[in-house]
Amino acid sequence: MTEEITVLSALAGGAIIGLASALLLFTHNRVAGISGIAAGILPPWGADSGWRLWFLAGLIMSGLLYRLTGNAIPVQTDTPLILMAVAGLLVGYGSRLGGGCTSGHGVCGIAKLSVRSIVATLIFMTTAGLSVYLVRHVF
Amino acid sequence: MAKNISAFVFGLIFGLGLIIAQMTNPAKVLAFLDIAGTWDPSLALVMASALLTLGVLQRVFRPLSEPDQEQEQPACGNRKSGIDVQLIGGAAIFGIGWGLSGICPGPALVGLTTGLPGIYVFAGAMFVGFVLFNFLHRR
After folding, report:
1. In this structure, is residue A1 part of a structural domain?
2. pLDDT tens figures, A73-84
3. Is A118 in the B-facing interface, judged by CB distances under 8 Å?
4. To the nearest whole angstrom, how far is the Cα of B6 from the nearest Cα of chain A?
5. Could you give the number of structural domains in chain A?
6. Is residue B52 part of a domain?
7. Is B132 a domain residue?
């Protein structure tokens, strides 16, 4: 589907993600792991969990803000709904069991050279690549 | 209140980074994961740029103290140390779901504003996955 390499938007977007993670870390002393923050809005609630709702609200609102600039957010997917349900379940359960996702392990964890995060990232990159390979080139 | 507003703004910035980097487009993510197809390395640049930005900022402005590990859910693998079965299994499961859909937790939430049914199914199932984890592994 999409095959062109988008160097500038990748570098700019990545830098913005890194900046937002740094801001959250420095001012809130929190790690910008999206799966952890999202799961944290479920009970049992701690004494200080309100910020998570605000962070997630900002995350969701970014889509609306971006569209106010007149640009569309390209979302191309042909994954059947049943597969989306299975994938969502695996992503939700797996990210909690493994203690992080692309942001928590892949960015924040690796940035502080956590061995656990480096191992987790290598593993999920591998299984993600394998499942894409199986879906696209085998079945 | 100031903390909540800043959390909202950081979520907003984080989401804009995901959109600009095109992490929110499943086709783009899958093109990165599909090494056997027409490989699109853009997302490696996103990760490299995010890591470089966060890494440099972390070293220039060191946080006053370590992230609050007592209250934080294990979102970034920083509460535990060492490689265990949960980390390996969780990362593997997460990767399979990510590879099946091209969606991880951040983009799932940002994508809600696009109104696509597949994104809603994914995000709903992801929260079911969080609940399943809480049910199976916590009290």
Report:
1. no
2. 989 999 999 999
3. no
4. 8
5. 1
6. yes
7. no
Residue B48 counted as domain residue: yes
State both tokens at B5. Answer: 């507003």
> Inter-chain contact B77–A104, Cβ cutoff 8 Å?
yes
Is residue B51 a part of any domain in this protein? yes
Whole-model pTM: value is 0.92
The Cα A132–Cα B106 span in angstroms is 20
Per the CB < 8 A criterion, the answer to whether B11 and A58 are in contact is: yes
pLDDT tens digits, residue range B90-111?
999 999 999 999 999 999 999 9
Partner-chain residue, chosen from A1, A73, A106, that has the shortest CB–CB distance to B31: A1
* Residues spanned by the domain of B53: 1-62
